[in-house]
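Note to self: user wants both folds in one dump. Writing first protein now.
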Amino acid sequence: MHEFSLATQIMESVLEFAQAHGAAEVTKVRLRVGELACVEAEQLRFCFHSITRETPLEKAVLEIEPFAATVHCLHCNYQGPPKYWEGAIAGTSIPTLQCPRCTRGAEALSGHECEIKSVQFVNSPSEASV
């Protein structure tokens, strides 16, 4: 499961950050996830909360901010949003690496990223930091 390994990497990075900053508890983790990263937000939240029990992240809210992909076509020089497949199987629009203008292959300029945007934590019960 892709989301489980991502949740593990996020947890390890945030725990390392929290320890370096003397955090007693992490209250919020904000992620920025591109639409080409193939991350199912609810599965990622479930995995994250499953593995953070009995850690300083146990009560942390996981906010996931999706962002749109950008593609570039080397054939017609298109740059912008990807073409979306309106597949009946998926029931939702799926971004592709097909140029929406000339239908040839395009390269992704952005949209594969999954990054920690911010971490909110508490040093002591009466103090909060971002």
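First done. Writing the second protein, which came from a different request thread.
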Amino acid sequence: MWRRTPTWIALGGAWLALHAGYVNAVGYLSTHRAGLTHVTGQVTRVGIELGGGSWAEAGSGLLLVSWFFLGAMLSGVLIQRTEVSEPGVRYAVAVLVEAGFLLAATLLMHAGFDWGIHLVALGAGMQNALASSYSGTVVRTTHVTGIVTDLGLLLGHALRGSRPELAQVRLLLSLALSFLAGAVLGAALLPHLRDWALLVPAGTLTVSAIGYWLRVKRS
């Protein structure tokens, strides 16, 4: 049975999805032309480049996937759980680390070191692994494919006569719409902020993590 999603999970998930959409849009629209949270697209890119004999481009895509993978591993080291159950300081630490990666990536890329984009992929992998599941539903904040898949399954079950779990639908919709809103925001701000566009999510994630940390410590 689906339990009512706690506010800290619903709001936190939507807030992180907003940042993921922003970062992904900046990655697509910048000179890097890379969907940094979109591993499926990157693996497809690797296959296309390999098929065309473009080894350097294939290696570039593979590196982004590898850094995303390492980010997920790092999140596993910090969180040490796959089921979201209760608030914890470890989540704040992980988000702070992600913000640090975004800041470092911004400074490196502004200085002309394009490989700094790998740190953004690392942070995206960390974020996507932060909240794996709650009450049987996977909570992914950078993976819209999974969100749309789950929504489609729920609709299919409803068409067969099963009563849909509205709390589950609301959570998934909030994640998808937040990601979309983040992409809109990223596209709108990139022309004005240019190389410094990723400072926005770095700053807001830092403030959010510190605020969450203090709230958990006081509770």
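Dump finished. Worth passing along: Helices lie at 7-29, 39-51, 55-79, 89-110, 117-130, 144-159, 166-193, 199-218.
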